Amino acid sequence: MGLSIGKFGEFGGRFVPETLMGPLLELENEFFSSQKDPVFKKELEFYLRNYCGRPTPLYLAENLSRAYGVKIYLKREDLNHTGAHKITNCLGQAILAKRLGKRRLVAETGAGQHGVAVATVAALLGFECTIYMGEKDIERQAVNVKKMQLLGAEVLEVKTGSKTLKEATDEAMRDWVTNARTSHYLLGSAVGPHPYPLMVRTFQSIIGREVKKQIKSFERRLPDYLVACVGGGSNALGLFYPFVKEKKVKMVAVEAAGQGGDTPYHALSLIKGRKGILHGAFTYFLQDEDGQVLNSHSVSAGLDYPGVGPEIAFWVASGRVVADQVNDQEALAVFREVTRLEGIISALESCHALAWVKKKRFNQGEVVVVNLSGRGDKDLN
Ligand SMILES: *Cc1c(COP(=O)(O)O)cnc(C)c1O
What we know:
- The chain contains 15 helices and 14 strands.
- The protein folds into two domains: 8-48 and 85-195, 3-Layer(aba) Sandwich (Rossmann fold), CATH 3.40.50; 55-84 and 205-371, Rossmann fold (3-Layer(aba) Sandwich).
- It has a six-stranded mixed sheet with strand order 3-4-14-9-10-13, with helices on both faces.
- The chain is α/β, with parallel strands linked by helices.
- The termini are far apart.
- The protein has helices at 18-35, 38-52, 62-68, 86-99, 113-125, 135-140, 142-150, 165-179, 196-204, 206-219, 234-240, 269-272, 310-317, 328-342, 348-359; strands at residues 7-8, 11-12, 58-60, 71-76, 104-109, 128-134, 154-158, 183-185, 225-229, 250-256, 274-278, 281-285, 321-326, 367-372.
- Residues 84, 86, 111, 113-114, 189, 229-236, 302-303, 347, 349-350, 373-374 line the site of pyridoxal-5'-phosphate.
- Pyridoxal-5'-phosphate binds at residues 84, 86, 111, 113-114, 189, 229-236, 302-303, 347, 349-350, 373-374.
């Protein structure tokens, strides 16, 4: 894996217009130098601990364990400030942007979770902020739109194509091409051109590092399974990455099968996608015969993206991570169950990971860690 060119096996790379090469190289250099800079590490750690609420708990869900027939630990990313894992990456990138002298943050959002997280760090660290959001998502996630506006962000409605995350991403990239000198493009998942996938995974890997410590203190051993849902791959990679060399730990990436894997209404980019270039990276995405991007479908806006980041594509292609699927109905059933059994209203995204555990037959004594990537208030409608 030549990290300098941002490849994960054959996946990844940097396929962008010439105008973006400068800003991407600038960002890459700042990212690598910040990783060796104790001042950066200290500042990020300060906000992660005192602002975000890290480390998040690893919680043994006894009622759910009894119901699903295996010992289940939930990594409570829902307890982060703003209610999901996304703020962790936003803080990292916003501090980088500040070091680069940028004064404006640009981002796309699907569920609105990422947009709220970006608007939040923008308010905290004094950036102007523009968020692109599909018209359909604006309808589905009205409360998050209000929050972003209250936080001082400008929310721009995207009315093209499927009116969801893919088009919002296109628009945010277009904005960045025009305004790269003053603006940082704060990507919300481990997708896009190098250095984004590597950078986002690096910031989110704190999830797996915390889990490793926590599970050792509870179980005196590593877990048998790590399970996470996959939109672009950031919460899954964040949990998995610190364990990739631990051969006995199985890793499952759960994609959204929407109305069903055999219908056209799903978001199975790892399972049903083909290889090509999407949003600046070589990866799997849903495409038609001619290589045009197809629309994805899922009840959960955070998984409704037709592609997937290059690193999770690599781990799946190499066999280290297994990809599987859960449909809308299965996820919705679990949404109710986990609420009633544990008093935790989980994001529909994370319910996909939990529903995989519910369907699976485990051996006696096995231990599973599920990434509860976010809270479900946004999904009540
Ligand atoms: C955005 C989001 C996801 C999907 O994004 P990944 O980059 O794949 O993690 C999953 N869960 C929640 C709660 C989200 O907000």
